[in-house]
Amino acid sequence: MKKLEALIWDLDGTLFDSYGSIVTSLLETAEACGAADSGESILKAVKRGSVSGYLRALSEKQGWDYETLYRMYRQVSHARMGEITLIPGAVETLRALRDAGARHFVYTHRGGSTFPILRRLGLEGFFEEIVTFEKGFAPKPSGEGVAYLLEKYALNPALTAYVGDRALDVLCARDAGVQAILFLPEDSCVIPTGKEHRIIRKLTELAENTEDGGRPFRKD
Length: 220
Hints:
Rossmann fold, 2 domains, 6-stranded parallel β-sheet, 8 helices
């Protein structure tokens, strides 16, 4: 099978090692409205769902307005942006795939904080376009944001993959009709959907054997 021509990347938990910052920020938000959730339970809720999903559940449980909780979370998490680091192998993988001819894009639920973090971590120059939630596309599992990139850049869906670390990302890829790659480190609490075209434990697996097209993906 031919090698991938384009990869569209999720950020948090995929290229960004950011769950520590996210969970701590959500813990502070939960405590502010009187909830006693544990860091472990929050991490599981976020990785198996989303930040907004956790905040909506917190809103219902505590009787607080969702938008108020979301603003509180954004304020706390913004102060912790400097804690975000790279997933091991991120730069090496992006560079190796680019050097082998692949194009890189980002589709993330993260907002305006995306760009300063990418610049600080030295990643911004790898991507032809970075699509954040501020573009207004339907949130994942909708593939609307990925479909936008496919159309704008005339990408071949069969040779394009969306790479993410949650079931939500797999469903997003499927909805857009591209290859679904699940980044699933050994310690992840995420449960595979069975709809993945490929599961990787380390990002560097994507860059292996790029000169001969790399490992094949399932065709379906």
